[in-house]
Write a structure and sequence with these properties.
Belongs to the BCKDHA family. By secondary structure, the chain is α/β, with parallel strands linked by helices. Helix content is about 40%, strand content about 10%. It has helices spanning about 10-35, 50-60, 75-80, 85-90, 125-140, 155-170, 200-205, 215-230, 260-265, 270-280, 290-310, and strands at about 65, 145-150, 175-180, 180-185, 185, 205-210, 235-240. β4 and β5 (about 185) form a beta hairpin. The chain is globular and about 50 Å long. The chain starts with 10 loop residues before the first helix and ends in a 22-residue tail after the last helix.
């Protein structure tokens, strides 16, 4: 792990990081159980990417705008979306803050928290995040906009158009590639020929950073520096965080058809949560008693959110068109 003291973090900060990483993991694990029990229709996992997500979130500040992608459960939970919000969305309930139960799970949205509504076509969040950065610059705000994506999305046209625009106008924008080495079933060696995707930053005239996404401290460092550069008028940054996808692409996927058995069996050794926990234990920052307490707290939080969401009402037929068309349209009168 990177030297936490050299980047201004203390032991309490590291404990806080782990708590959010663990809560994200526990929520994700519960979603899988609910899906396998036939209670929710779909899961797309953050497991293996929590360190990158909490590391970057730790460097963000109030007023920053985020355009996350579908694996960012730990990130949006840290930013303020509650476990109940997550469960209401998973069950498709009326009080789902993302879409009122209309959108598929993991399409995050929260105006109050500065989380832009996610579009299903991958890559659109880059353009939306760049647009938000342009507005922040025009309004002379001391904030940044950021977006996240998987490495597969870095091959979409929206990615290139957005970063080119951000580079030309020196926008306060940070783009984070959470590179988990698979675009659904396509391995990274069949996705791109470059050694590092962060090297693409050169062509856009922006900063590029390559970082171990399993290390939340290292992730915090590069995100903090990118944010400082952006606010100093030094332009945008492309960060490539190397992560591990611990699960199949989604609950509808079987990765045994394309992922070698040896690789799948070795995933546990790459688990960012286990690695960070081991580091904290070795440094005597936490102990088994503290871990047991956190385990119990998070179990109670997830249980409570699950039970409340299960009991919550579904949208009514009369609410079908709410927030789909503008008020005053031919459907809403």
């Amino acid at each position: 792990m990177f030297d936490y003291k050299s980047v201004g973090l203390n032991e309490d900060d590291l404990k806080t990081m782990f708590k959010w990483m663990d809560l994200g993991r526990k929520l994700d694990e519960r979603l899988w159980l609910l899906n396998r029990a036939g209670k929710i229709p779909f899961v797309i996992s953050c497991q293996g990417q929590e360190a990158a997500q909490i590391g970057m979130a730790f460097a963000m500040r109030e007023g920053d705008i985020s355009a996350p992608y579908y694996r960012d459960l730990a990130l949006v939970t840290y930013l303020g979306m509650s476990p109940l919000d997550t469960m209401l969305s998973a069950f498709g309930k009326r009080d789902d803050i993302n879409s009122g139960g209309k959108q598929m799970p993991a399409h995050f949205s929260n105006k109050k928290l500065g989380i832009l509504s996610q579009s299903s076509p991958v890559g659109t969040q880059v353009l939306q995040g760049v647009g938000a950065a342009l507005s922040l610059k025009m309004d002379k705000k001391q904030n940044i906009a950021m977006c996240t994506l998987g490495e597969g999305t870095s091959n979409q046209g929206d990615f290139h158009e957005g970063l080119n625009f951000a580079g030309v106008h020196k926008l306060p924008f940070i783009c984070v590639i959470e590179n988990n080495k698979y675009a659904i079933s396509v391995p990274d060696n069949l996705q791109y020929g470059a050694e590092k995707l962060s090297d693409r930053a050169i062509g856009y005239g922006i900063h590029g950073e390559h970082v171990d996404g399993n290390d939340p401290i290292a992730m915090y460092k590069v995100m903090k520096e990118a944010r400082e550069r952006a606010l100093d008028g030094d332009g945008s940054t492309l960060i490539e965080a190397m992560c591990t996808r611990m699960t199949a692409h989604s609950s509808d996927d079987d990765d045994s058809g394309y992922r070698p058995q040896e690789e799948r069996e070795g995933l546990k050794s790459e688990d960012c949560n286990v690695k960070f926990k081991t580091f904290l234990l070795s440094e005597n920052i936490i102990d088994d008693e503290w871990l047991a307490q956190i385990e119990q707290e998070h179990k109670e939080i997830v249980n409570k959110a699950t039970k409340e969401a299960e009991k919550a009402p579904y949208p009514t037929p009369e609410e079908t068109y709410n927030y789909v068309y503008e008020e005053g349209s031919f459907l809403n009168g």
